[in-house]
Amino acid sequence: MKTQTCSKINLGLNIVARRPDGYHDLQTVFYPVGLGDEIEITENGGRGCQLTVGGMPIDGDPAKNLVVRAWQLLDAQFRLPGVTIRLDKRVPMQAGMGGGSADAAYTLLMLNKMFALGLSVAQLQNLSASLGADCPFFIESRPAYAEGIGERLTPVDLDLGTLWLAIVKPPVAVSTREAFSRVVPRQPLKNCRQVVAQPVETWKDELHNDFEDSIFPQYPVIGEVKNELYDMGALYAAMSGSGSAVFGLFPHRVAGLAERFTNAFTTVLPALSRPSSLITS
After folding, report:
1. How many Cα neighbours within 13 Å face the side chain of 202?
2. DSSP label at 254?
3. What is the value of pTM for the model shown?
4. Active-site residue, 2 included
5. Which of 126, 150, 204, 268 has its CA 20 to 30 A from that of 260?
6. Coil, helix or strand for 78?
7. From CA 234, how far away is CA 255, in angstroms rounded?
8. Is 134 one of the annotated active-site residues of the chain?
9. Catalytically annotated residue among 134, 169, 210, 226
10. How many CB atoms neighbour CB 32 within 10 A?
11. Residue 157 phi/psi, 5° resolution?
């Protein structure tokens, strides 16, 4: 079985409280976008999960990759056949776009379908939460308002398909731990779920990513990317998650993005919502 995953952008991200367990409560709107990795899973007649990685290089031990951990999670419950998983990495790491979380969630979806495990969406979401806070979102990959640490999801009726999405990731990495260590929790003046129900043209003054306040002074290049996207005509621009990717929503296809940001990862694509039901065998 082979499929392409998606990634996500955050439409607003408010850190509202620090929890007794050391995590933070947040409010955000997750929106799925078509930039994704490719995953292919093949039975190999043995036991275990063998992972091969192509495309962009990834850090860390492949045996601890979220794709392998997703297989192990289901193997512990169902004793799965051995598989070889090929991961073609196209979503940059440490971008704040959930590339690794999406890989884990889509691996669960694919294994559930390949081996007819019969797990429901709710069961898959519960399982995936142990792999990462935003993994449950990628089980359905539909626009959603997220609360808690990102695992409590409420569907949002939102389609930005008439717009174009420009994504720029400068060559800097921001760790999630570092991002949370510098943020000051507070309640927003207006909830991001309310703001995204308004016309996109109003978002610039009301839809905010709280991480920008602490990260932009530390990494000015990220803030400069946001400003340049506005200079190019973006209706709305923001850092996604804890960065370092920045996205802009445009009323037209953007030309010359790679030439303008020569040392960064760049892509332009339609801002279509892409549900995970597009998995094909």
Report:
1. 8
2. -
3. 0.93
4. no
5. 204
6. helix
7. 12
8. yes
9. 134
10. 25
11. -85, 95
